[in-house]
């Protein structure tokens, strides 16, 4: 795998935004393709991607393969402020578009609709040391060759320049390869009541 071009995401380009939503879906099953798991192909991106492109465009970076985005990293400098802003500026329109019980109760789509109406709130205990957070997703074309590391280090540099002392991320406990990758970069497991959250001092 060769080193791929890296740049800021073109967050105002509808074609690129659509491509990033596609990447989100195609990596949405602990890194594997989740296309067959959801009835609405944009819903996963609306929950885990769109707000970052809209509200934190300066912290959105992509790697390109064959002239199109093949992976991205997204970040928020101040998680608490970002969560408050999404409550004002991102979730209300989605709640109108996706009322509760839009999808069957036991479906993955409805689980995402539940998140839209009751968004996750980051545990306050970790925000002093790790106020920033990130999401990273890479298609197979961008995996290997150090591309994931370069994407993350680009974001880390941007967060340091913005004065952040630390960054955290959530990861599925069954995504063993991702956990190993993050721990190799220096992330450590944080003590939170539920889920697996990793943190890195910047």
Automatic annotation (TrEMBL):
Domain N-acetyltransferase: 4-202
UniProt-listed Pfam families: Acetyltransf_1 (PF00583)
PROSITE patterns in alphabetical order: GNAT
InterPro entries hit by this protein: Acyl_CoA_acyltransferase, Glycosyl_Hydrolase_84, GNAT_dom
Record protein name field: GNAT family N-acetyltransferase
Phylogenetic classification of the source organism: Bacteria, Bacillati, Actinomycetota, Actinomycetes, Micrococcales
């Amino acid at each position: 795998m060769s080193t791929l071009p890296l740049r800021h995401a073109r967050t105002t380009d509808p074609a690129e935004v659509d491509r990033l939503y596609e990447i989100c879906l195609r990596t949405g099953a602990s890194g594997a393709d989740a296309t067959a798991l959801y009835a609405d192909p944009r819903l996963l991106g609306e929950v885990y991607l769109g707000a970052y492109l809209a509200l934190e465009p300066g912290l959105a970076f992509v790697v390109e393969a064959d002239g199109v985005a093949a992976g991205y990293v997204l970040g928020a400098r101040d998680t608490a402020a970002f969560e408050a802003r999404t409550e004002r500026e991102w979730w209300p329109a989605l709640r109108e578009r996706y009322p509760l019980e839009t999808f069957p109760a036991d479906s993955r789509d409805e689980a995402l609709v539940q998140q839209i109406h009751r968004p996750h709130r980051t545990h306050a205990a970790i925000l002093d040391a790790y106020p920033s957070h990130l999401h990273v997703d890479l298609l197979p074309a961008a995996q290997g060759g150090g591309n994931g590391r370069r994407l993350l280090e680009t974001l880390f540099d941007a967060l340091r320049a913005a004065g952040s002392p630390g960054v955290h991320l959530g990861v599925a406990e069954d995504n063993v390869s991702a956990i190993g990758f993050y721990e190799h970069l220096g992330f450590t497991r944080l003590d939170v009541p539920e889920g697996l959250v990793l943190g890195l001092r910047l």
